[in-house]
Write a structure and sequence with these properties.
about 120 residues, mainly beta, 1 helix, about 5% helix, globular
Length: about 120
């Protein structure tokens, strides 16, 4: 029996449903690990906290909440993936320089926040 592992995704920023065109990206873990090398070889590893985020390409619909997204600094952004996984980003805000592509009708969004939880 086949299992759906990819496909349609849904993203909400506060209460606004965004039309997703391309992929949705969320971090798989909340930390990164790096090997600490000694003269004799690997001595262990160190852990560093990772910034929780959600990246996506949204369709720039006529009712796209551009002003709300640009001004909000404490959103809840929820990404529901096709495999049934959900990632909830709290305390979220837009980072970087969101760019609108007129010829494609899309906008690249990168949200970061205080906490990201897989449900």
């Amino acid at each position: 029996m086949g299992k759906r592992v990819a496909g349609i995704c849904y993203v909400k920023a506060d209460s606004a449903q965004l039309e997703v065109q391309g992929g949705v990206e969320c971090p798989a873990t909340d930390k990164t690990r790096e090997t600490v090398m000694g003269l004799a070889g690997p001595a262990g590893f160190k852990e560093t906290a990772r910034t929780p985020y959600i990246k996506l390409t949204a369709i720039n619909t006529p009712d796209f909440p551009r002003k709300t997204l640009a001004e909000s600094t404490d959103m809840t952004v929820t990404a529901e993936l096709a495999n049934g996984s959900t990632y909830v980003l709290s305390g979220a805000y837009l980072v970087g320089e969101p760019a609108v592509s007129g010829d494609e009708g899309t906008i690249e969004l990168h949200f970061e926040g205080d906490k990201g939880i897989w449900q």
